[in-house]
Amino acid sequence: MYSVLSCIVGQHNVWLVGLASLVCLAGVGVTLSLLHRAATTGGLQRYGWNFLTGVAAGAAIWCTHFIAMLAYNPGVPVTFMPVLTVVSLLVAVTGAGLGFAFATSGLTSAAPMIGGSAVGLAVAAMHYTGMLAYRIDGIVAWDETYLLTSIALSIIFAGAATRSALRADTMTGHLSAAALFVVAIVSLHFTGMTALQITPLNGAVEVADDPSTAMALAVAGMALVIIGAGISSYLIDDRARYDSYQRLQHMALHDPLTGLPNRTSFTNYLEFELDRAEGAKRKVAVLEIDLDRFKEVNDLRGHQAGDEVLKVIADRMSNLLREGEMVARVGGDEFTAVKTFIDPVTLVEFLERLQKVIFEPIEISDFEVSIGASIGVAIYPDDARDRENLLSNADLAMYRAKASATEDICFYESSMDERVRARRVLASDLRDAVKKNELSLHYQVQTSISTGEVIGYEALLRWHHPVRGAVPPVEFIPIAEETGLILELGEWVLKTACAAAAKWSQPLKIAINLSPVQFIHSDLPKLVEDALKESGLDAKRLELELTESTIVENKERTLAILQKIKELGVSIALDDFGTGYSSLETLRSFPFDKIKLDRCFMQDIEVSPQSKAIIRAVLALGKSLSIPILAEGIETNCQFMILKDEGCDAAQGYYIGRPGPSISIETEQEDLLTA
């Protein structure tokens, strides 16, 4: 150890040693940073970073060695062989690159230590290759003990440094790794130089004009250029990664179509505003906004036009925002807004601004449309004390606005909760109704008006609740459709009715209503086919009824499904005729087997010439299309006789027969046979 210190102090230019140390420290810092980046990437990027690591490490090690060699004063003239000097540089770069590549390969848990040791061996190979390029006017001898010790120190410390660098996750760990790497380089060089023993030849003299300092500065300058290139590449990559992160973060927090904040961003913002409002005198209003006529634009003009509408409205809303206001798109044609306020007047003013830009006509291509919206408002802390309930209450208010014919904006009222809670309880009970055998089918007779003959029955679903008693279909069917339970109920009705009809003594038709939801969410033709096969019912005896609104929802899909059902031999009836938006277009689109005239036309047929004229026109239409007409809601003999005089084909209603269970049907059929 004393010999090594004596070599450093007595035989080296201290200033150049300091310069070599500066280059070494800078090079090691850059090398370990690049090594860490190589370890955290994969694929071709890892190869690239390993290459840069090897170049930075090799250049730093070689330059440190070369400057330290120039700092060494052997007392005799010195020259360097160019070829071996360059070869020593290549050895340093190649060896360091390969060693670090193995260290980051993950092939084995010992890879960092093995790869680092290989780098240490490369450092030693570079040093002694450089020493071969060292030409001195004297006799050179080596102390093998110091020589082998220098190589061992380089391998051990470089291995430990690499292992520490790849495992470090704190600043202390990184500094420790850098210190070990510096020790590996320094201990190799100065222990190796201690091993060097020079005996000057007779007559050899030291050169007076020594260019060592100038050469050392030039080498140091080149080393710093290479190290700077490594730093630059690291910083450029960091910037690219930061920019990429910013883009990904923007994508994660914003809607890609409109550029507005998305649901995640909205949730974070609302939580922040609620926290700020806690304990303060300010309030936070949440607005649920649902566009009213957006679906019409999509259906009539296509999705591209719909997207343009969304972008225009989003742009308008974002431009009107002021401090304490925020608008987000949370899905489809749904938007949500937040308004922080103290004076309620400012909330009303915000609503007016929103309403104005949403209801203002939008010009797209060759058409103009006024979209409109239903807006629900809930206020913290008046209507709710937490985010979930606040959003839920705003949603309830929005649905009330949507259902209102006169109000576009509705504020939450506590009575809404009671109605919603009651519906949720009913929905929960309805889920168990099938399992608990609370559902049943009643059947209402359909007769020929001209002959009085029974032509079939319509199956009607009934629910007897264990506590509430009979629950009207008008109350539980909408709930079943909203919750998706209608799929399970519809399948049960279809299979139960087909099985019951198959056992009737007479081959009468059974009519079953279909929900629009069944056309959207289920393979209806397969379900019908399975019900017929399981029950053994002749397909000609099954008649499925659907309303015009079902077809309007998705015309092409619905008509395609109806065509498949019709191919099974099943009849298709158009229910509630005359109440839809495009009855004649519906009849043109599909060959229905029957038209059911809605009961609303029967209510004042006895006193209203207009109602009688409408019925006469519908009957004439049916005859011209060869489609039989069945009138619903017949409750008096007078109504029945008017329909008979007008030539209506069939009728159904309380006057003819009230709905009843299966056993009543068998009794009716027996009575008819004996009459």
UniProtKB/TrEMBL annotation:
The keyword Transmembrane applies. Residues 12-199 form the MHYT domain. Residues 423-673 form the EAL domain. The chain crosses the membrane at residues 12-35, 47-72, 78-102, 114-134, 146-166, 178-196, 216-236. Keywords: Membrane, Transmembrane, Transmembrane helix. Residues 282-414 form the GGDEF domain. InterPro entries: Biofilm_reg_signaling (IPR052155), EAL_dom (IPR001633), EAL_sf (IPR035919), GGDEF_dom (IPR000160), MHYT_dom (IPR005330), Nucleotide_cyclase (IPR029787), Rev_trsase/Diguanyl_cyclase (IPR043128). This is Diguanylate cyclase (GGDEF) domain-containing protein.
